[in-house]
Amino acid sequence: MSVLRIRYLGEPVLRARAEPVAEITDEIRRLAQDMVDTMLDEPGLGLAAPQVGESLRMVVVRIVSENQDEEDTEEEKPTVAVLVNPEVIESSEETITRREGCLSLPTLWGEVTRPKSVAVRAVDLMGRPMEMHGEGLMARVLLHEIDHLDGTVFLDKANPDTLVWLVPDEDQEEGYREDPTTVEEVTARFEHIARRRRAKEAEL
Ligand code: ZN
Questions:
Q1: What is the CA(147)–ligand 1 centre distance, in A?
Q2: Does domain 12-203 have CATH number 3.40.50.2300?
């Protein structure tokens, strides 16, 4: 099991358009397994290859039920799917607005409006064509991850009036408080973190 380093906003790979996977090699299968390990370790509901520094069109997702709560995902043996070169082939006109977060923008949350249901075409790790239909939370996870392949993060689509940092706070009943923020502040904070990370890596 390998847990890979998650790239944060501010690192160029998250803003690049990822390349299609040309051939499913052992290296691609290993990357997929490492991405699954990383997603489950965090834990997250999905992960796209650019989030671990690979500019490739591949995503891994947890299979979640339509009305599942994001907090309610601590299953013993989660079911996962790997989608190579995924493409959205259908999405509903009906939308749902819900709070969303991302491993590449830790502690930030904001409301994003997305289609209620979606159909995605991809190939699996054996190179076989597959189709996946998602409703509710599953549709949201698929669309969020596929957005990453085009350099888009949820911050670009979130209603700016709903952006908050979830800050641990023992004085609050929930154990955290919500600090409202702005796109500019979020961008500046992650660019600062990315600069610090680069400086640290240069030292090593
Ligand atoms: Zn994300």
A1: 8
A2: no
